[in-house]
Amino acid sequence: MNQTSLNPTEPAIVVDRLSVHYGDVTALDSVSVTVNRGQICGLIGVNGSGKSTLFKCLMGLVNAQQGSLALFGRSSTAARKGRLVAYVPQSEDVDWNFPVSVGDVVLMGRYAHMGPLRHPSRADRAAVDHALERVGLTGLRNRPIGELSGGQKKRTFVARGIAQEAQLLLLDEPFAGVDKVSEATIVELLHDLKGEGRTVLVSTHDLAGLPQLCDSAILLHQRILAEGTPAKVLTHENLARAFGPGSPPVPAATPSATPIAPGA
């Protein structure tokens, strides 16, 4: 399955009244969200607001008690099997001691393209080479993943999504603990991927950088508090509702993210 087989009018993400409870704790309370194709959408909120739970629901890793969701009009299971979605988890969700190299991690993104014996073809290896080049990690392909810096680890997982040829990338706090070079590389990559028609949902605490990064934003605190353009979401009133009296300042007005043509 590739992008040309998708209905171009179908949103990348549709979440309808989704609720998730962990025992007596409510993680998501009747959340409804739509993210259109070819956008970078920022997901913001305090720690524990339900951002990671929403990502895991989209990936089929957590089951909701109520509501429904669809990715390109398909269930999360069908979207994963169709190689449509890739996930970059938070660092604490990954076993960095597992003995695997950077190249091996990126190659995992090609598994669905391979036969049952998982024997990589020339096309698979070329896709890995291309992905590593795009994230600037070609020289580290044989390095154990656990020896990388925080930013290099994030870039490795982004490369895995690129090699997979996913049309939707879910990035959970990709800028947490990363160096400025990696942050700039990831931001540039996300704009490039958007220019290629892919969709990105990214959670971030960097409110100041949100207008330059994203076309739209979602403010989450178990419920959707606000959604729309970054300028519409990042108001004093909305941030106070989400973050309380010590809410961060509203970022200075800046132009929103602009499309980048494929190959630019």
From TrEMBL:
Example GO molecular function: ATP hydrolysis activity
Organism domain of life: Bacteria
Source organism of the structure: Arthrobacter subterraneus
Family assignment from sequence similarity: Belongs to the ABC transporter superfamily.
Matching CDD domains: ABC_Metallic_Cations (cd03235)
Record-given protein name: Manganese transport system ATP-binding protein
ATP-binding in keyword set: yes
Region (Disordered): 243-264
InterPro entries: AAA+_ATPase, ABC_transporter-like_ATP-bd, Metal_Ion_Import_ABC, P-loop_NTPase
